[in-house]
């Protein structure tokens, strides 16, 4: 156990301390911002920010319904990707 062990421990401590800000970024009940984009055939929509009631809530197990407008020419035969 020479210098290498001390360096490894220091790296682990630095990595853990840098993750603290990420871990406390959201608290239960906070709205997690989201954006959506769709693709049908070779046509893509631009990114749209979602409003709060359609976004997930951190630490809350729930489903949200996201309104999805049908693209031009949509028949249901081909997939619409989100």
UniProtKB/TrEMBL annotation:
Keywords: Signal
Signal peptide per UniProt: 1-25
PANTHER family: ATP-DEPENDENT HELICASE/DEOXYRIBONUCLEASE SUBUNIT B, ATP-DEPENDENT HELICASE_DEOXYRIBONUCLEASE SUBUNIT B
Name the UniProt record assigns to this protein: Neprosin domain-containing protein
Record organism: Solanum lycopersicum (Tomato)
């Amino acid at each position: 156990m020479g210098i290498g062990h001390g360096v490894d421990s220091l790296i682990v401590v630095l990595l853990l301390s840098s993750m603290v800000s990420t871990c406390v970024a959201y608290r239960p009940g906070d709205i997690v911002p989201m954006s959506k984009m769709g693709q049908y055939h070779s046509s893509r929509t631009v990114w749209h920010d979602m409003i709060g009631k359609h976004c997930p809530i951190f630490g809350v197990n729930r489903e949200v319904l996201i309104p999805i407008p049908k693209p031009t020419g949509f028949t249901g035969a081909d997939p619409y990707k989100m």
